[in-house]
Every structure is written in structure tokens, then in C-alpha cells.
Amino acid sequence: MFAVLDAVERSVFDGIYSALDAASRPVVGPADPRLLVIPIRNPAGAVTGGLWGTTLFRWFEIEMLVVPPEMRQQGIGSALLAAAEAEAKARGCLGACVDTISFQAGPFYLRRGFTLFGAIDDCPPGHRRLFFSKSLARDQAGLRPRAGRA
């Protein structure tokens, strides 16, 4: 009756997305998804890291942020995040969210104003998947988040 797939054409995504958007739009408005990508390239032009995210529902979702090992501890990750947050604010985003694995970038996000709001144990086995969010509204035209909200 149902087929489980691991590779599909773009029209499958478009069909599922359209159905979900049609069901959600009357309640929350349009999702308005847009990529927000900042690649890091080596001198030959190959992508070696960077930031990949999406803005939708007036939120910035960080999906990947990686700095090549030889470029770490130089403020590049912070600069990528700051540039992405500035663009997200320009797009009207109210906040940012990201998840990471416990051995990865949790302290990085905490130092940059994110708040831990959830975790899944043993995801992947032996580690925790950590979920962070940050308000971007504080800096927009005098907007302040409501008390008790990150």
C-alpha cells in the first residue's frame, strides 16, 4: 500500500510540502521557506565548510554550520553565525533554532546567546541531541520578547 523510498524526484517533496502548507496556512500563515547559505571555499573554489539554513515561519533554522579544522579558533564560526543572523533579521525572523550532538557545538551556541530547550538521549547512541533557540526580536525596532521566553 505504501512505498518507503530513500531517493525521490523533486515533485514528491513539492507534493508533500504543498499539502502540509495548505493545511497549516489558515492557522499560521505562509511558511515562506528560503535558503540562507554562506559557503566557505578553499583557494581552488571547493566548498570546505560554511553555514546552511532556512528561514520559514519567521524563524531561522540552522541545519549545518562547520568550519574546517585549520580555520577554527579564528572567529570564523562566530562571523558566519552573525552574518546569518543579520540576514535572518532582515528577513523579519523573530528567532533562530539549531540542534547539535553533545560532542559538537553546544558550548559554541550557548556562548552566542542560545538557550538549551531540549535533549534526546542516545541520539546517536552514547550521545545526546541538543536543541537550542535564540530570540532575534530583541534587536528589531524595539521589539522585546515576552517575559519568560528565550
Shape: globular
What's the N-to-C terminus distance? 44 Å
Largest sheet: 6 strands, mixed
DSSP helix fraction: 25-40%
Strand portion, in percent?
Answer: 25-35%
> What is the SS-derived class?
alpha+beta
The CATH topology is Aminopeptidase
Poorly predicted ranges (pLDDT <50, ≥5 residues)?
Answer: 140-150
Task: Write the H/E string, N to C.
Answer: HEEEHEHEE
Keywords:
alpha+beta; Aminopeptidase; disordered C terminus
Give the topology.
Blueprint: H1 10-28, E1 34-41, E2 47-56, E3 59-66, H2 76-90, E4 95-101, H3 106-111, E5 115-121, E6 128-135
Parallel strand pairs: 3-4
Antiparallel strand pairs: 1-2, 2-3, 4-6, 5-6
Quick recap of the structure?
By secondary structure, this protein is of the alpha+beta class. It contains three helices and six strands; from the N terminus they run αβββαβαββ.
Q: If you had to describe this structure to a student in words, what would you say it looks like?
A:
The chain is α+β, with helices and mostly antiparallel strands and 150 residues long. It has three helices and six strands. Helix content is 27%, strand content 32%. Strand 5 and strand 6 (128-135) form a beta hairpin.
